[in-house]
Amino acid sequence: GAVHGELNDIGNTYIEINLTAQHMYVYQDGYIDLESDFVSGDIKSGCMTPEGVFDIRNKKTETVLRGSMDNGSSWETPVHYWMPFNGGIGLHDATWRKRFGGNIYLTNGSHGCINLPYQNAETLFEMVYVGMPVICYYELEEENNPDDQQTDVNGNPANPLEDEPNFIEEGERL
Prior knowledge:
Blueprint: E1 14-18, E2 23-28, E3 31-37, E4 52-55, E5 60-68, E6 74-86, E7 89-93, E8 99-101, H1 104-108, E9 114-116, H2 118-127, E10 133-137, E11 150-152
Parallel strand pairs: 1-10, 7-9
Antiparallel strand pairs: 1-2, 2-3, 4-10, 5-6, 6-7, 8-11
């Protein structure tokens, strides 16, 4: 887990988000109860998901996420499970994505949110509570494994020969 040393001021129930590995761990009572690959903020467009220690602010089902781009255009996308932890940044399902993990976030990531496969977002939604700690971090460069593999919506290794679309459909990059 992300908690090291003698002091443990967040407890042993929290969400750990490794932004470099694009992998999330959910700890309950010190044990990993859920793991998932995800897609975070798009590095190329400057939408990096920020590092830090946060907490779940609320939980909503069947809501619409809205935002605006630097060019003044706006977007809105419905999601089934929404769990914000840092202003407008949160965890949610991303049913428009076919793959998660790997290096997708470098060029085709979100606006900063943590995009999860639907089933994992649903499971997480049932586990989280308002105030639950969320730890987001990037690993040092030498710790990053460039061979990290993408997974499909079911957590199976994705076929690297299948192209991730480069075009952006309305609301795709949340």
